[in-house]
Amino acid sequence: MKTIKLLATIMLSLLLLAGCTQKISDIKSTEYVGKTVTVSGVAENPIKLGKISGYTVVDNNGDKIGVSSEDLPSAGDKVTVKGTLMKDTLLGYYILVK
Question: Which residues of the chain form beta strands (DSSP E)?
């Protein structure tokens, strides 16, 4: 019986952690480049130029990160973004959503 309770607790914890988002300030690090990250915030400055499109996400702390995505939210929309953290010489850190 204790084993079942322990197993249930572990599974519930994993489910809760899977839905967690990360702070933008925490993921802007070379250790996260190439890894999947998830952030939440408000979308700003959506733009589409030919085949290139993206927007900025601003989290509750006021930290910002660019998002490269074909799907564009409207400015002011609350978003949760999951993608690969990239780093570019000109753009700096950004999230690539496929």
Answer: 36-49, 52-58, 64-68, 78-88, 92-96
Tokens of 59: 């989290």
CATH of domain 21-96: 2.40.50.140
Task: Give domain limits for the chain.
Answer: 21-96
Name the strand (E) or helix (H) holding 67. Answer: strand 64-68
pTM here is 0.79
Query: Residue 7 gets which letter from DSSP?
Result: H
Neighbours of 43 (CB within 10 A): 19
Separation CA 85–CA 37 (nearest Å)? 6
* Per-residue pLDDT, 91: 86
